[in-house]
Amino acid sequence: MKLNERGLLIVISGPSGVGKGTVRRALFEMKNHNLVYSVSVTTRPPRAGEVDGKDYYFVDRNTFLQEIKEDKFLEYAEFVGNFYGTPKDKVDEALDSGKEVVLEIEVEGALQVREKMKEAVFIFLVPPSKKALYERLRARGTEDPEIVEKRFKKAEKEFSLAYKYDYIVVNDDVNNAADKIMAIIRAEHARTQRTIHKYTKMLEE
């Protein structure tokens, strides 16, 4: 018997370059899960290998601004000259169907979601060290050195916001980090505040 019919919203966030996408993919490769990935909308150009509708919905700036006016985003943020946003209608639809919805978003966006959906589970993914993060950003090789420096400086500020999250997971090993996140999801399903209402009703039957 399921004590909570609605799915969980899991927000995986952290500084740019920490490996959010890599950990998220490892999480989805695990067996016997009920996870769905919430694809974000962005105005940035696709990187090599990224697929529209799978990695992101790629739109132009005017389209994104119009969707802001129409209140279509659960959260959105502008980062290094590009917009990123989460389409809220698709998130609600998946949660209502009992799916676990995973958001992989930047820190600014995660804090917006925290204000709107307090029942969500917020996980702050961090590197084993600042040096490791800087090396990861440089190793990407997809951005100019100036952009890399901007991302690193922004990341240094974001580290201080970890206290706003429910959990901190160190990405020292991708599979290990994914295992920890899956354990968090399973534990959250048994949290009393999520299940007590259904459990009480069950006792009355």
TrEMBL record:
EC code(s) of this entry: 2.7.4.8
Annotated catalysed reactions: GMP + ATP = GDP + ADP
Major location (coarse): cytoplasm
SMART domains, sorted: GuKc (SM00072)
CDD domains hit by this protein: GMPK (cd00071)
GO cellular component, one term: cytosol
Chloroplast listed as a keyword: no
Top-level taxonomic group: Bacteria
GO molecular function (one): GMP kinase activity
Binding site for ATP: 14-21
Role played: Essential for recycling GMP and indirectly, cGMP.
Protein name: Guanylate kinase
Native species: Acholeplasma oculi
Lineage: Bacteria, Bacillati, Mycoplasmatota, Mollicutes, Acholeplasmatales
